[in-house]
């Protein structure tokens, strides 16, 4: 193939991908609107619009045209000739293409229809506390995913194929090692914490007027450095952040009348996702590389900002005064030290999304164990309620009395998102590992935080993580930033230091 | 052609059009977001997304596939076989197809690029009060539109082709007759009004806190019957309403600190557009018939609700108490009668969008006269500033001292929207004509309004106008509802009765 022909094909490919990315942006904007703004009765019709556009995008991704581009551009010689962004874009699209094309279209349609109906079956099952309503759907989903894995192939463990979908390069072998030490140390620490006197936190659950919560959340985003000229802040039942492109990144949050921590830490969490997306290099716009590199790295940023900054003693040394200005009545008799302890209380509980920073990873690890065994056929769907109850009792020390607070609590499996849960704990692990390097490279960063200044922290994260988008893999990000591959020891050390101090162990 | 073949083609055509409509809905949602919500720096990238989708939609509308469908379905025999909605949809698409296909693609592209650049040239010219900055663009636009008219063809008058684009069936001959009497009577009435003592209205221009204006506008929409389960209410610099589909119709308004009338009547005006769109028959969803039948009929509804209801004595008999509750300080020394007069003051002025109910049509008629002569080559672009100044002095009695408040005040021509302005006055004429029938068929409707009840009025308009969408032409709507074609005498009678009373003539 001549160099000219390759260059010409590369140009055509880039135009084609840019067009796909524009369609993707349109779909994402409509979905954002559906989550945050759409009037109730407008949902059904809009869902058809999203379906139509998503179908078009999938058709472009799996078209013969795409196949031809990839054939020309993914030979070693051609890849050599391409500029780095086009090269990465070719490899990124090739992976998608091969995954999508390998599934027979009929099977794929069956899967899409199944997951669509499964979501409402799950919701009904949860509402009625009846696992049997969901069981047949989940069995079919697991069955199809097992088929997909046979098609996609695997080396050591079938579940690796799912893990690496969300976290490129991740395997069961690695994760067993990473999670093993973390689980053991966490359970040990949790036991010691629960023997101690609980911290006081009733002042967090007074009445907080929504209007004032909105103002305070916005103020907090301004303090942290969210760029409102490149984004929005709105309300939705389920908080989320979405990066339509680096110049339009939107955060939502939700307000509870009697719990200030939900909107406060929800907003800071989503800020972490959003600041990542706002800072991805503009050179990547128009490709699918213009976003966070993996779910785990993304979650590392939401967790870093929520927990390591937002739940740190230093942060509230500076920000407690502002909190007091917004809510003078509620915090009249509280000081920064009390507040710091209260927002870091630890308490074994049943629901993952309400879990504290220490027990949270145990919730993830039990899901990981279950998914791994389920995908490998060591356990079956019908046994899940019992296995779930046993595992959470073993790890967290509580046992659910119903399915709604047990095996049916999460939506993820109804959409076929097996392999996803681990991302949450990977995020915590990555975050602690990055923080360990950060404090070596900027030794006074905690003093800066205590002075209300996070600009140097942001600049460091931008340099190490944000600007690269998907140009680096999670492994490359971690190795280049911290000098080693993923290592959960830093999280263990961080948790031990923090909670031994708070609980006086 | 066999009946089966026609039916099969009809089904395919309907699927194809439904897909086009979904794409149209996506584009409209993105444009709504761009007008109301988008962060400043997100605009450029999003404009590319809209451009891509609009290009796709235009390609579908002018495709060979569309041509084949229309060829099969628009024969008299085929049309006979089709259900009424499909038949109307075929004729609707055929008109678009023929208009779009007849223009050579290069010429069309030239026009699109030209109007895109012309808008910023117009904005700059207006800001610098320099007509010469805009003149070359306007000359090119007028030149291309004259070419388009030669391609599209015309019978009696070249300008007819443009008029009927916005108001099917409308001609210069008809409009000269309709506007002639209206202009004469309006100028006469205006002279008598300006001889009288002006009504007091300083209380409308006190400080009105935005937060309270937002609440009051929302309250007004609730009072009028806007269905919030099928729509939204937001803020944007230029108020507008958009019907994405009957189940998702969105209104925006803008708030001025020192002018309560802008948000109040702006909101009621947009309510008129929105309630029309919310009530279009659901049978039409998925076709381009699911919207108002013409710009003029649409404007009749915004004007009816804004002026004939919202600026009526009876409406404020009921609503003044609610206004006082929202703004007790501002209206402490005012009564409903004072308020009614103040919101109906008449004052000759230069700017169309700020004009009162009486002089507004004069602003439109001068634009109509100018466009008609310009398109027919009787005047040229270079002469517009002088002609404009002379005409507004003749009609309204004021003369602009600069271009920004004269010939450069409106954006319309920069986008090539010749033929559009008349819709605004057609709206007033239609509204008065419909109101004349309404008061015969529901003789106590004004008492109902005075009791705060507009449900019967809404039901009547729904039956006569809203539910039909584009299934009836403007002419059919008016003839079926009022028993006659468009007639401006009712507007003249309405204006005379109202303003003679207010100004004591």
UniProtKB/TrEMBL annotation, chains A, B:
Cofactor binding, note field? Binds 1 zinc ion per subunit.
Catalyzed reaction equations: Release of a C-terminal amino acid with broad specificity, except for -Pro
**What function does this protein fulfil?**
Broad specificity carboxypetidase that releases amino acids sequentially from the C-terminus, including neutral, aromatic, polar and basic residues.
Q: Which organism is it from?
A: Tumebacillus avium
Protein name from the UniProt record: Metal-dependent carboxypeptidase
One GO BP annotation of this record:
proteolysis
Binding-site positions, Zn(2+): 269, 273, 299
Catalytic residue positions: 270
Query: What Gene Ontology terms describe what this protein does at the molecular function level?
Result: metallocarboxypeptidase activity; zinc ion binding
Instruction: Name the needed cofactors.
Output: Zn(2+)
Q: Which InterPro entries match?
A: Peptidase_M32_Taq
């Amino acid at each position: 193939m001549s160099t000219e022909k390759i260059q010409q094909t590369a140009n055509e490919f880039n135009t084609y991908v840019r067009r796909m990315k524009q369609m993707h942006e349109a779909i994402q904007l409509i979905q954002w609107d559906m989550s945050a703004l759409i009037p109730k009765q407008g949902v059904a019709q809009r869902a058809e619009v999203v379906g139509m556009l998503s179908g078009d995008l999938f058709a472009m991704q799996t078209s013969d045209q795409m196949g031809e581009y990839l054939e020309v551009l993914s030979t070693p010689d051609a890849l050599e000739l391409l500029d780095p962004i086009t090269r990465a874009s070719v490899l990124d699209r090739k992976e998608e293409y091969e995954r999508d094309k390998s599934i027979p279209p009929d099977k794929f349609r069956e899967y899409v229809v199944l997951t669509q109906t499964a979501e409402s079956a799950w919701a009904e099952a949860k509402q009625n506390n009846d696992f049997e309503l969901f069981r047949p759907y989940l069995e079919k989903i697991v069955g199809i995913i097992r088929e997909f894995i046979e098609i996609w192939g695997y080396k050591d463990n079938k579940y690796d194929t799912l893990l690496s979908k969300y976290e490129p390069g991740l395997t069961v072998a690695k994760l067993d090692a990473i999670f093993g030490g973390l689980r053991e140390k966490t359970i040990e620490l949790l036991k010691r914490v629960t023997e101690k006197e609980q911290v006081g936190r009733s002042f967090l659950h007074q009445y907080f007027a929504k209007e004032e919560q909105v103002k305070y959340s916005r103020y907090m985003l301004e303090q942290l450095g969210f760029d409102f000229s490149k984004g929005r802040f709105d309300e939705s039942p389920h908080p989320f952040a979405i990066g339509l492109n680096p110049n339009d990144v939107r955060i939502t949050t939700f307000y509870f009348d009697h719990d200030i921590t939900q909107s406060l830490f929800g907003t800071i969490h989503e800020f972490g996702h959003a600041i990542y997306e706002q800072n991805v290099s503009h050179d990547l716009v128009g490709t699918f590389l213009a976003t966070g590199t993996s779910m785990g790295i993304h979650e590392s940023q939401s967790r870093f900002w929520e927990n390591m900054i937002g739940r740190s003693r230093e942060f509230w040394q500076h920000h407690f005064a502002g909190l007091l200005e917004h809510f003078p009545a509620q915090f009249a008799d509280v000081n920064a030290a009390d507040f710091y302890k209260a927002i870091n209380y630890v308490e074994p509980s049943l629901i993952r999304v309400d879990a504290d920073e220490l027990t949270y990873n145990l919730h993830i690890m039990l899901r990981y164990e279950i998914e791994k065994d389920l995908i490998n056929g060591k356990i079956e769907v019908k046994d899940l309620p019992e296995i779930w109850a046993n595992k959470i009792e073993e790890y967290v020390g509580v046992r659910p009395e119903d399915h709604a607070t047990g095996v049916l609590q999460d939506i993820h499996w109804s959409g076929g998102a097996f392999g996803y849960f681990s991302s949450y704990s990977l995020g915590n692990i990555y975050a602690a590992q990055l923080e360990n390097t950060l404090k070596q490279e900027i030794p006074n960063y905690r003093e800066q935080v205590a002075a209300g200044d996070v600009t140097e922290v942001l600049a460091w994260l931008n340099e190490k993580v944000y600007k690269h988008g998907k140009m680096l893999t999670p492994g490359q990000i971690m190795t280049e930033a911290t000098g080693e591959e993923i290592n959960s020891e830093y999280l263990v050390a961080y948790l031990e230091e923090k909670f031994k101090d708070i609980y006086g162990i």
